[in-house]
Amino acid sequence: MKNRLKHLFLACAIVIGVTGLTGQVHAATTEPTAPCTKLGATETGPKKLKLVCAEISENKIWVPLGGDLVVAIPQDPGQLNPATTTSGAVHTASEMVYNGLVGLDDRLNPMPDLAESWTVNKKATVYTFKLRKGVKWHDGQPFTSADVKYSFDEVLLKYHSRTRASMLGAIDSITTPNPLTVVFKFKEPYAPLLLQLDVTEAPIVAKHIYDGTDPTKNPRNLSPVGTGPFKFGSYKTGSEIVLEKNKNYFKKGEPYLDRVIMRVIPNANTQVIAFETGEVDFLWGIPGPDRARLLTKKKVNYLVTRRNPGGANCMMTISFNLQKPILANFNVRKGIFQALDRNAFLKNILFNEGSVPVSPFSKGIAWAWGRKLDLPKYDAKAANSLLDSAGWTGRDGSIRTARGVYGVADGTKLSIDFLHFPTFSAYAELYKAQLKEVGIDVRLRPLESGPFSTAVFTKRDFDTNIISYCNGTDPEIGIRRMYDSKQIGPVAFSNAAGYSNATVDSLFQSARNTLDLNKRQVLYQKIQEDLVRDLPYVWLVESAGTRAFTADCGGFKPYGLFAETAYCQK
Amino acid sequence: MKLPYIGRRLLQVAPTVSGVLLLTFILIHIAPGDPIQALASGNGDEDYYAFMRHKFGLDQPLINQLGTYVGNILRGDLGTSYITGQSVSTTIGERLGATLLLTGTAIIVSSIIGIGLAVVASLRSDGALDHATNAASLILYASPVFWIAQLVLLFLSLRLGWFPVQGMNSAGLDAGVFGTVIDTAWHLALPAGVLAIQEVAVVARLMRSGIREELGQDYIRTARAKGASESQVVVRHALRSALLPVVTVIGNRIGNIFSGAMVVELIFGWPGLGQLILSSSQTRDTPVLLGIFLLVAFTVVLSNLITDLSYAWIDPRIRLK
C-alpha cells in the first residue's frame, strides 16, 4: 500500500516535472503570481523532481526541489565551528550551518541576514541592529540578541583571528537592550563593520550550547547547532560530512536541496576523476592542466569568482625585502617590476582565470581600488637601463655585477633569492626565467607554509618572495597589514616588504575612522598613489577561483552559504 | 622457556618507543611553523598569536612542554588536538579502523597471492607462468605506488567505471549492515589492490627463489625417492622451509605498508591514518602527530616480535632463548 502511494506520488511528480519542462505550469506547484518562465536545470535526469519557483541572482526560474549535492573538499576540517578559527577547511565545511548578522551580495553590498535592519550614528561609533523575529536554532531554541553578544564577546573576539585583530582594540561594548536589538559601541569611529559581519567573518553561534564551556573544545563543534539553511546530519572524520535541509529556515522556501554531502578528497587529480565519473557534483577549484579538458565537456558549468573560503579578492604579490641593500634601491625594484611580463603569468599559470592588477588594491573592492595609476609596464629595455643606472652593470646575457652600489662590494653578482610555497613553483620558474633576461640571477627557495613564515616574517631572511595576499572585502581587513609599519613583525602574512611610510600609516588610520565611502575612497586613492611611487611590492596577478559543477545543478553562490539556493536535477 | 624470551623482548619495547617519541618530539619542535598559523591561516595579529600560544601552553620552555607531555603519556593521556579540540586517542581511534582494514587486507591478499603464484610457478619450473611471474614481479616492484594508483584510477574507474574513484563508502550511504559491508568491499578493492601489488611482487620473488633453493636439498630427494608427487614435494616439503624468510619479510614490511598506505589513502581519499598524518603535519598538530608515531612505533616493534615468535612456530629447529 505504502509503495503504491509512493508510485502515485512519483507519477504526480513526473507529470508536474514534465509540464514544468514544457513551460506549461501555472498554479500546480507554487503561488500563481510567481512569474517564473525559465527552467533552471539544463539537463534532465532520470529522477523527476517537483519544481518550485525560485529567485536566484535576481532571476526567477523554476528549480527542482529535493535531491543531494555531492561536494569535494580537499581537507578534513577536524571540527565544524567557524567562529573559533579562520581555517579555510573549517569554513568551507561548516558555514552553511550558520548565518552572520549581515550578508554580502554579489557586489559586496551589505544585505539582511540575521539582522533585518540597522542604523549607524553619524560619527560611526554606534551601530544598532534589529534582529529578525522568530528565528530558531536547529535544536528549536529561539535565537536572540544574547546569542549575538555571546558570540562576539566569548568566541569571535577571542578566537577568530581576523575579527579579533581588527575589532578587539576598537570595540567599547556590545549591549542588548532587548532580545531583538544589539548595539555595538566603538571607542573611535569604525567604518568597516558592515563588511565584516557575514558568515565568514562573524558566524553567530548558540549561547545555550557554548555558555560556560571552552568553545574550542566543546564536543558540539563536531555536531554543530546553527540557524543556517542546512543543519548538521553526520560527520565521519576523514570521509564525509552530511548536511540536511533546515525545513524551518527563516528564508522561506529555501534551501531547495535535501542534502549537501561533502566528501574529503585530498588529491586534486582524484577530485577531477571523481567529478568526471559523476561521484562528485561540485569542485571548489580545478587544477590548471585539467581546465582545458574539462572546459570542452558539455555537462559542466562554471562560476568564476574572486571570493574564496580562505578570503576574498586574493592577489599574487611579490614582496621586496626593503632592508636588503640591493632592494632598498627604487630603481632596482622598478627594474624588476618592468622586467616581469605580468600577462604571461596570467596566461601561462592562471590560464587567464583572473586579471592583471591595475592598482595596488584588488579590483574586487569596487569602491577602493586606485583609479588612473601608472603602474610600471613590461619593458625589458627600460628595465635594463634602470638596473644600469642603479650601478648594476653587465654585458648582454650575463649576470650583472655591482659597481659603486651602496652597501654592496664592487664586483658582487646580482643574485637574489625567491621564497615560495611549493604549490607556487610555476610562478617561481617564470619569475626566474624573466629576470634572467635582464641579467638577474634568482635562487629559488621553495618552503612549506610554516618554514616560509618563519623565514620571511620572523627572521626576515629573504630578498624576494611571493604571497597570495587576500585583500578581503574591505582594505581594513586584508590590505592594511601589508603596508602598516606597525605590522612589520613575526606575524604571518603581515607587512612582508617591511614597508614603513608615516603618511601611509596615518592615511590608513583616517580611512578606518571615516564612514562615508566617497571620502574613504579619496584616502585610499592617496595611499595607492604613494605605494606606486615607492613600489614595495609587485602586484603580479589577481587570481580568481573557479567552481565547477555538473550541468544538472545550479543556483550556486560564490562562497559562504554557497548552496543556500542551489538545486540539482539528477 | 618461551615466556622469559617474550618478557625480555617486551622490556625492550619501552626504551625503543621512548627513543622514537623523544626524537620525534624534538624534530617536530625544531621544525619551523606552529599550529596557530594553521588556525589563523594567514591572518591575526601579534596579540592573537600570544593569546593562542598561551592557551596551548606553547609559550612554556620546551623542556616543560616535554615534561607535561611525558607526564600525560604515563597517565595514559595522549593529549588534545590543537586543531579539533578533541582528545588524540579519539581522533586516532576514528581513523585506525580504516587503515587496519586497508593494510590488513593488503597484507593478507598479497601474502596469499604471492605465495600461491610462487608455488604454481615452481610446479612448472621455467614454464611460461614462471617467467611471466618473474617479469611481472620485477616490473611491479619497480613501479611507484602513486603511479600505479593513478593508472588504475584512470583505467578501471574513469574508463571502465567498474570501481568507485574514492572514499570508503558511497556518498551519504544508508544501506544497513549488509549493504554497508558490500559497499565498503567495493570501495576497498582498488586501494587495497594497489597497496598489495608491490607486496605480491616482493613475496612471490622471494618465495620462488626460496622454493627453488629448497628443491635442490637432500631431504627433497628423499621425499621424491619415497614416491611423493611433485605437488606434494613442493607444497608439503619445500614450501614450509622456504616460508621462513618470507615471513620475516612480510613482518618487516609492516612499516613499508604503512608508508605505502599513506600515499594510497591520499589518492583514493581513504579516511585512515595516512590522511591524518598529512593534515596534522600541515597544521603542526603536534599531539596528534606524536600519538600516531607512538602507535606506529609500537606496531613495528610488536610486529617484529610476532615475526620472531612465528619463526619458531613454523620451524621447530629454531629455539628462542
Radius of gyration of chain A: 26 Å
Largest interface: A-B, 61 and 57 residues
How many helix segments of chain B? 13
| Overall average pLDDT of chain B | 83
Strand content of chain B: under 5%
Shape of chain A: globular
Secondary-structure element order of chain B, N to C: HHHHHHHHHHHHH
Classification by helices and strands of chain B: mainly alpha
Determine the strand fraction of chain A and express it as a percent band: 15-25%
Query: Whole-Å distance between the termini of chain B?
Result: 7 Å
Structural class of chain A: alpha+beta
Mean pLDDT of chain A: 86
How many helices of chain A? The count is 17
Helix content of chain B: over 70%
How many beta-strand segments of chain A? 28
The tally of beta strands of chain B, per DSSP, is: 0
- Given as residue ranges, the uncertain stretches of chain A (5+ residues, pLDDT < 50) are 1-33
Largest sheet of chain A: 6 strands, mixed
Strand order of the largest sheet of chain A: 19-25-18-24-22-23
Q: End-to-end span of chain A in angstroms? A: 27 Å
Present the secondary structure layout.
The complex is a heterodimer of chains A (570) and B (321).
Chain A: H1 2-22, E1 38-39, E2 51-56, E3 59-64, E4 68-73, H2 88-94, E5 102-104, E6 110-112, E7 115-120, E8 126-131, H3 145-159, H4 161-167, E9 171-178, E10 181-186, H5 207-210, E11 230-236, E12 240-245, E13 259-264, H6 268-277, E14 282-283, H7 288-295, E15 300-305, E16 307-308, E17 311-312, E18 314-320, H8 325-328, H9 330-339, H10 342-348, E19 354-355, H11 380-389, E20 392-393, E21 401-402, E22 415-420, H12 425-436, E23 441-446, H13 449-458, E24 464-470, H14 475-478, H15 480-483, H16 502-512, H17 517-534, E25 537-543, E26 545-550, E27 553-554, E28 567-568
Parallel strand pairs in A: 1-3, 4-13, 22-23, 22-24
Antiparallel strand pairs in A: 2-3, 5-6, 7-8, 8-10, 9-10, 11-12, 12-13, 14-26, 15-26, 16-17, 18-24, 18-25, 19-25, 20-21, 27-28
Helix pairs in contact in A: 3-4, 9-11, 16-17
Chain B: H1 2-30, H2 35-40, H3 46-56, H4 62-74, H5 88-123, H6 128-142, H7 145-159, H8 176-215, H9 218-225, H10 230-252, H11 254-268, H12 273-282, H13 286-314
